[in-house]
Amino acid sequence: MTASQLQHPALAAADPELAALVGAEERLQAETLRLIPSENYVSAAVLEASGTVLQNKYSEGYPGRRYYEGQQNIDQVETLAVERAKAVFGVDHANVQPYSGSPANLAVYLAFAEPGDTVMGMALPMGGHLTHGWGVSATGKWFRGVQYGVRQDTGLIDFDQVRELALKERPKVIFCGGTALPRTIDFAAFGEIARESGAVLVADVAHIAGLIAGGAHPSPVPHVDVISTTTHKTLRGPRGAMLMSREEHAKALDKAVFPGLQGGPHNQTTAAIAVALREASQPSFRDYAHAVVANAKALAEALLARGFDLVSGGTDNHLILMDLTPKQVPGKIAAKALDRAGIVVNYNTVPYDPRKPFDPSGIRIGTPSLTSRGLRTEHMATVADWIDRAVAAAGTGDEQTLTAIRAEVADLMAAFPAPGLPV
């Protein structure tokens, strides 16, 4: 029997076709170098919690205030997750029920704005998120979105523009945070602007929640009204989300999540969030968070030494955004070549990108997954060399080099088994 069949015997017996796909994904995750900054490996404990009999229970409402009976254990599970979130992030209130990051952000709109109100966030091509008022999103269709960006000369947020826009447009809600920001977010500067303009300030820390929990990125708590985050990515939990806030906003947020947007929470996910938060409270998690940043900085330096153009010139966190224009290889072609070389990235727009979003100039990479496997700063030159060779091969159509890199990647990955995967 394969390792996957041994780990999932009931699935293998009931649905061999699906079990084979799970096994194939386990092998892919084990053998490749995963550099997508929004991906990670969860622990075996988080995986187990995600697959428990808590799946069988419906639990509309909140602990002690449910619309279904039989919640004696579920209430305790959710309370554990809530109390751990409050302790890890140092917040007054936490809601662990949102199904994912986008629904969590929708709850923020429901709590603090009316359809047609002005909202403000970072423009998607500059590194923001769809749900920060971008036009193709429901948040841009139901609300009037205005966007700020980054300076073309530095790649850094233009706070003069942010302040000018906020005072001119007077948004009800301002989002700070995004999906392709390689630098530390200045929550204090955003806080001053939000107070001056009378807006509710929301920090969307989905990408950096684990870094904040581990002390590797400043906390937004003293400066913002609400924190929205996913629970996967750097936090290494299941695919879920949380909303955290000052006590004064607790009731509005809770009502927006339920009954405003959704019914019963996914109790198995809540349990896995509780496990991930317990892991995030341990000293070893702090070591991991700082190692993520150290690896990213080392990788950025190694890429710069090989002639790559990095947006903002480097990174302060887990993420590197690369403009491949000087390499004369479009981002999409490079990403697909890297994938064939066993290096998983995503193509991405860069600020002021002249190319279309589905065929952009850049790629986005990050270090959470490789750090979870145990790779250290001394390995980053090797990773940069693989990327350099693969991008060059993408430009010339050299499939032989891509095949050779894939074998080298698999050899190194075998020496650093991934958490949660069958060995």
UniProtKB/TrEMBL annotation:
Tell me where in or outside the cell this protein is found: Cytoplasm
Q: Which UniProt keyword terms apply here? A: Amino-acid biosynthesis, Cytoplasm, Methyltransferase, One-carbon metabolism, Pyridoxal phosphate, Transferase
Pathway(s) the chain acts in: Amino-acid biosynthesis; glycine biosynthesis; glycine from L-serine: step 1/1; One-carbon metabolism; tetrahydrofolate interconversion
User: What Gene3D superfamilies does the entry give?
Assistant: Aspartate Aminotransferase, domain 1, Type I PLP-dependent aspartate aminotransferase-like (Major domain)
Catalytic activity field: (6R)-5,10-methylene-5,6,7,8-tetrahydrofolate + glycine + H2O = (6S)-5,6,7,8-tetrahydrofolate + L-serine
Cited function:
Catalyzes the reversible interconversion of serine and glycine with tetrahydrofolate (THF) serving as the one-carbon carrier. This reaction serves as the major source of one-carbon groups required for the biosynthesis of purines, thymidylate, methionine, and other important biomolecules. Also exhibits THF-independent aldolase activity toward beta-hydroxyamino acids, producing glycine and aldehydes, via a retro-aldol mechanism. Thus, is able to catalyze the cleavage of L-allo-threonine.
PANTHER family the record matches: SERINE HYDROXYMETHYLTRANSFERASE (PTHR11680:SF50)
Can you name this protein?
Serine hydroxymethyltransferase
